[in-house]
Input
Amino acid sequence: MANISSLTPVSYRNVSFKDGFWAKRIEKNRKVTLPIEYNALKTTGRIDAWKLKWKKGDPEPHIFWDSDSAKWIEAAAYSLGTHANAKLEKQVDEVIDLIEKAQQSDGYLNIYFTTVAKGERWTNLMYGHELYCAGHLMEAAVAYFEARGKRKLLEVMCRYANYIDSVFGPEKGKIRGYGGHPEVELALVKLYKATDESRYLKLAEFFINERGVQPCYYDQEKEEERKGMTLPQTFDRNKNIQAHKPLREQETVVGHSVRAGYLYSGMVDVAMETGDVSLMQACRKLWSNLTEKRMYVTGGIGSSRQFEEFTFDYDLPNEEAYAETCAAISLVFFAHRMLQVEKDGKYADVMELALYNGVISGVSQDGKRFFYENRLMAHPERTKFGGQKPIERQKWFGCACCPPNIARLLASLGQYIYSVSKKEIYVHLYVAGKAKVEVAGETVTLKQQTNYPWEGAVALTVNPKVEAVFALVLRIPAWCRKASVKVNGKRIVVNGNSKKGYVKIVRSWRRGDLVELNLEMPIERMESHPSVRHNCGAIALKRGPLVYCIEEMDNGADIADLRLPRKSRFSLVSKKISDEKVPFVTATGYRRERSGWKGKLYQPIQTPLREVRIKAIPYFLWNNRGNGEMRIWITEAR
Amino acid sequence: MANISSLTPVSYRNVSFKDGFWAKRIEKNRKVTLPIEYNALKTTGRIDAWKLKWKKGDPEPHIFWDSDSAKWIEAAAYSLGTHANAKLEKQVDEVIDLIEKAQQSDGYLNIYFTTVAKGERWTNLMYGHELYCAGHLMEAAVAYFEARGKRKLLEVMCRYANYIDSVFGPEKGKIRGYGGHPEVELALVKLYKATDESRYLKLAEFFINERGVQPCYYDQEKEEERKGMTLPQTFDRNKNIQAHKPLREQETVVGHSVRAGYLYSGMVDVAMETGDVSLMQACRKLWSNLTEKRMYVTGGIGSSRQFEEFTFDYDLPNEEAYAETCAAISLVFFAHRMLQVEKDGKYADVMELALYNGVISGVSQDGKRFFYENRLMAHPERTKFGGQKPIERQKWFGCACCPPNIARLLASLGQYIYSVSKKEIYVHLYVAGKAKVEVAGETVTLKQQTNYPWEGAVALTVNPKVEAVFALVLRIPAWCRKASVKVNGKRIVVNGNSKKGYVKIVRSWRRGDLVELNLEMPIERMESHPSVRHNCGAIALKRGPLVYCIEEMDNGADIADLRLPRKSRFSLVSKKISDEKVPFVTATGYRRERSGWKGKLYQPIQTPLREVRIKAIPYFLWNNRGNGEMRIWITEAR
Output
């Protein structure tokens, strides 16, 4: 068993953000979102639930409340890892104290199954979410230990992991089951890396290898004994949780999309650490199916609200899109891991796409409200029918997975920017700020100055402590048709020199060496594959990594009737949305006259078109100025 | 109180069909569908359920099983009214014997509430369906009495109606409630007309007047006492059953679409018979909202599968369309009644539209399979997800309202063709066959020779017993832009002479007078209102009353990517579908090349278009040649 990853991410603790797109958002996450979420955990009883004082008649804690606290702790830990905050740290310590006390003498730790369903441990692996909650607590424990060096939660979670390891496994007398909602797999690998305890890696491997072996474990669980959550039997439940066949035989992404994203991430983790080539091959196949046939143009994934599932190839409805925030986040996890193994820009492309669109659409510009679903088309009346969530971002959700998930992602965003190998620094994302990187035995400080993603120019200053030979490897995004790179003012060839989406600059670097990258980012008219029936005859606007959308407030009602010619010039107009200057795209387009329609619903084609200015804004910013229609795909004009 | 209807429909018993579009379908209905349905009633226990032998542990009869038998009896009665059939009549008599025996001593009659929920009568007016079942049995009773002169079921239902009248009403001690699923209202008016018992009309009037009076009756029903069906409280249940405000104040069509259609039909009936002008005015407003803002191009109604409801103005999704067969049938009922009062072709236009599209799409060409939902766009994979019904017509349904409903409509289709007033014969629909009509004190035989709707030429021979002066009033459909009429070879002016969609020919008619009508029916490209977001940038093809659709088997997969130019010539090609010669429409169109897409889901627009022949067939015939994609709205080409 050998680690087969090619790259190692640079820790978020060595990366700082300054004055840019992300700095603003990460600061808001720290100053606004984290306190709001703590408050929500508190007022909804999620923190007090750790006291295990629930008694019959009280409102029931939900089976995944544990994970809500856990993700918030993890987010707070990352935040504390870069920005000291005594008040926040005290809050974290207090919650951890409660968690420690909630742990049972044998190591078991779970609110619901220690109170409401006492004595029913592991009776509902399919939907009970015990291993899922354990996983999130493990991630929190590792994050807090790494951020602040405090071991309490880490030790609690090692005890729990040891107990889980004593319960699950291939050995006689152990349960040969695995969690219905994957998460513990990737968490166990984190715990293994933090503690060097190989049992945790082996347990993760067991869960991965056992999953989907037929007859399926869940078929042995007795329906009537299941405590916690259950879902109807009218659909393929084993498929919903990716347990319909062994993972190495799975070639299409199916079932619950967040489960899928966490599972695939855990698969890469295990494959990476154990050198498991067949598992890695399965990851590649799943990646292809996911990104080539089942992903929204925003990087959102999961087409169906019902059971939050993938459906079938090219089925990507816009108005009915599910595209949960957590699912887009899980895609970032998956992409980031694949990137470390494969050194291929296609993974960074998807990671960037999801980050700038389907992920950050999940939080309002002021950091106070959240989307659970990230539809690509919205109508304010429609959202009142048919089980859709409301059109506007919400303060909180009964099933509150998304808000703390986006908080932990933003707080740890630094880790997605750079990776290193022995003699290479990979720059995956362009963000204003600094990083301290160890490469070729030297410490190198990198500084990025850029207004990305609003502009495509990036100035990188390379500051090795002492002159050193290594490669600076810059990503040339697939969306960019024309890129140029200068080193200390001297142009280098990009095209012949770039490989798998990266251009490699090997030289002996000296303090102050300046690399200037320019990524041209004109507005592009995108089309989708002819089998995506929802987008035939329609255009999506994209500029750089940003997908644009049109909103009612800029274009009047009935935006579905706007038509965008295949050719016509665009202009960029800088306008403020809240405190942020945003480039609006405007273009000449058309819409039908509404006069002449009184009393009619259908008629032989006769309505004249009238010229209008179509205004579009970055998709992720929609619904920050009130409620109204929104859509990404615009009808192509005749 | 005075009857305010202007026209009286000519009974189906005086109308015969010959050699045409409908003759074929009505014959299949009689010879194939009716026996199949009897068999289904029998084998599913619906007929035996009348024996009231249910005991605990047996499979439960459904609360509306009574209505399934009733609609079949009604259909059989109409069939017997035009075609004697000893075997069928014996089956009907046997079922009626069972029904008679099932009647309780006080007149009450209901399977579910006499067996499963014994003693729970009228505890769940909202969803218990007792009055709904009573209504369908009354319709059956009247139909069988009128067809065969047999009084047994009529008397049973009069006893039941008398009992219902003793239970419900404004008087002290009576229940001031009404049925959650309207139906009994229109049925009571039929019973009144058959028996001349004015109490039945008064009771119908009471149900209409009481409905929606606030506080709503249902708010007094105790949730925990409700037996039979219940629906979640998470939506506006009073609105779902059109009881959210008094009917005269309702201006938009809301709630369950079949309930709505039956209710509005009952409202017209009561308004017609009582001369209630304010009620009639409400009907007009509801009609306008329904047909100008909430109706599919097929005459289907009800946009949302969830609770089978109307949603909001211009919300007409195609793939997710609900458009129940029963709802389109109820629209025919509503339109037909409005037409008698208003003498306005706009009602006949909608009646014809629904008949030729959203109604008969509900039964397969061989008469053996049925659609419950009539979506306007289908994808064979999509129908496996998200609670959609299967893509193909089914043999039967657990909730089996549609099959016998379409059977009774087809068996009684004759009544929709002609109406008379004192000195007028109105011809609403063009069908090959004969009719015997009483007008101006004379008996007139009318003969129509036509290949309508495949062709627009109609030859009407007028044969009065003796020469008589009266008006022959011919409908000029709104879809027809150019019509001509000749009387005995002499052209008469249509345009200046036509009023509200009809042209009136007054003369002294003699035996053998020949009226030749020609309705030009080129293929039209239809657009829908700019607020119908689902159809913006798309074209529907229509020829005469027939809406066309495209199917995968004629056009290859990914039919969403087909593009139809705004201008280009069509051809008609006659091809057989099963035993029927059908004019296929073909047109030059385009689709994108699929090469160049390997491994890609989105790209900057670049795919070339390639010319193809688009082939379309009448919508109602879709899915008669196997499963595949289907859609009505075709993307307009650049």
Residues 576 and 582 of chain A are 6 Å apart (CA to CA). Chain A is about 30% helix and 20% strand.
